[in-house]
Design brief:
It is built from 2 helices and no strands. The chain is elongated, with a radius of gyration of 12 Å.
């Protein structure tokens, strides 16, 4: 499965929007952590495209 930087950013955005609506603190933190992972992946994919 191949993911584009735009798809990775979209996943991060979706997770952060859900985290903002979450009242369960542990779940909110987990969603934010997953969003961070997607942002890191997007950055790596963008670097790979430039190289």
């Amino acid at each position: 499965m191949s993911v584009s930087p735009d798809e990775a950013l979209a996943n991060a955005e979706r997770l952060l929007k859900n985290a903002e609506l979450e009242t369960n603190l542990p779940l909110m933190e987990r969603l934010e952590g997953l969003a961070d992972s997607w942002l890191q992946m997007a950055a790596l994919l963008m670097q790979r495209e430039v190289s």
